[in-house]
Amino acid sequence: MVDIHFHIRKTPAANNAHLDGCGVSNAILLTGLNSIDALHSTESQSPHRYVWSASTDVTKPEAPQLLTDAVKNGAIGLGELKAHVASDGPELRRLYALAGELNVPILVHFQEVPHYDGEGVFSTPFKSLEAMLKAYPKTRFVGHADAFWANISADYANQSAYPSGPIKPGGLTDRLLSDYPNLYGDLSANSGNNALSRDPGFTPAFLARHQDKLMFGSDCSCSDGHGAGISQANNPAAARLAGKCVARETLTVLKDSTSPEVFRKLTWENAHAVYRITSSTLS
Ligand SMILES: [Zn+2]
Ligand SMILES: [Zn+2]
Question: In the prediction, which pLDDT does 5 show?
Answer without folding.
Answer: 98
